[in-house]
Amino acid sequence: MDYNKAALEMHESHKGKVGIVSKVEVATRDDLSTAYTPGVAEPCRKIKENPDDVYKYTFKGNMVAVVSNGTAVLGLGDIGPEAGLPVMEGKAVLFKEFGGVDAFPICIDAHDAASVIAACKAIAPTFGGINLEDIKSPECFEIEETLERELDIPVFHDDQHGTAIVVTAALINALRVVNKKMEDVHIVLNGPGAAGTAIIKMLMTAGAKDIVAVDQFGTLYKGCNSAEAHKNWLGEVTNPRQIKGGLKEALEGADVFIGVSRPGILTTELCKTMNKDAIVFAMANPTPEIMPDEAKAGGVRVMATGRSDFPNQVNNVLCFPGLFKGALSVRARDINNEMKLAAAYAIADLITDADRSEENIIPGAFDPRVAEAVANAVAKAARETGVARL
């Protein structure tokens, strides 16, 4: 099937993918007077008296803003807010279809961190949460950190943490397959941008102790003097053996390779230098860092990609609908590390011991159990860590 042609036809015929559907009927004078003036004034008065009643009388409690400035859209780069709108519409569709969460796409003409922050703060009263999407690094770090600190609703950058949660879930099961432990394995991550940095943080939260990050200039280590602040931080907190060099040096004896970088950077020969029962997650899209048959030829035992035409697809749709569903259900102020880790284990644990194998380490995108399992785990963690208001 030619997905590009089909997508163009579908988007054109429907004029996009989302619209507004009324929850109430307006067929009579009484309907009109209740949905709008004069009756609507009463919930306005109640909310003025008690601002928390906005969750009782409006859609805020189940509505997420999907916000982007179009500076890092898919693999297309900085294409602008208008060109990014089809992606944000699609994200809103996935929120509803997979998690029952209402979401609205908001593409903003804002090109610096301060402008994005100001826009999100201005619209926050309308929404129960904000999903940041396709915002380039390093601005995305400052934007998320500031909004998390200054808003009382959950803010989540899916390109960072959605990816990190699903990667962690997949790695939990991959390690179960090869009978290794998170705290014992040597992990190499290629591409420490927004997603790569979040993956490293999440794996450290899950217990990983030996991670080496590699960018286009080589390994990150103490004093590597990168031009990017987050990479200097990674150099301080990772690479305990202070390995210097490139991907070749980092991969010698490694148990795990995680790629969020570019096609073809990993070779069969490099895979042969990894440890026995190696795990490779090659997630560059649409062409991964190495194709599965090439990795298997190099001795890799467990392989995952971001593609749906290979086993073990690492897909963010396994995370964000359920995560927001759970956070909204308890009116969480934040989405903290405990909630993220709970989501990862909820996804991983849906694969039973009997079903787990080299080609089955993560649920499929259409597994109906996922969103509810993630939501329940996230809500529980929110209550236990004190960020839930219900």
UniProtKB/TrEMBL annotation:
<dbReference type="InterPro" id="IPR001891">
    <property type="entry name" value="Malic_OxRdtase"/>
</dbReference>
<dbReference type="InterPro" id="IPR015884">
    <property type="entry name" value="Malic_enzyme_CS"/>
</dbReference>
<dbReference type="InterPro" id="IPR012301">
    <property type="entry name" value="Malic_N_dom"/>
</dbReference>
<dbReference type="Pfam" id="PF03949">
    <property type="entry name" value="Malic_M"/>
</dbReference>
<dbReference type="InterPro" id="IPR012302">
    <property type="entry name" value="Malic_NAD-bd"/>
</dbReference>
<feature type="domain" description="Malic enzyme N-terminal">
    <location>
        <begin position="15"/>
        <end position="148"/>
    </location>
</feature>
<protein>
    <submittedName>
        <fullName>Malic enzyme-like NAD(P)-binding protein</fullName>
    </submittedName>
</protein>
<dbReference type="InterPro" id="IPR045213">
    <property type="entry name" value="Malic_NAD-bd_bact_type"/>
</dbReference>
<comment type="similarity">
    <text>Belongs to the malic enzymes family.</text>
</comment>
<dbReference type="Pfam" id="PF00390">
    <property type="entry name" value="malic"/>
</dbReference>
<dbReference type="InterPro" id="IPR051674">
    <property type="entry name" value="Malate_Decarboxylase"/>
</dbReference>
<keyword id="KW-0560">Oxidoreductase</keyword>
<feature type="domain" description="Malic enzyme NAD-binding">
    <location>
        <begin position="160"/>
        <end position="383"/>
    </location>
</feature>
<keyword id="KW-0479">Metal-binding</keyword>
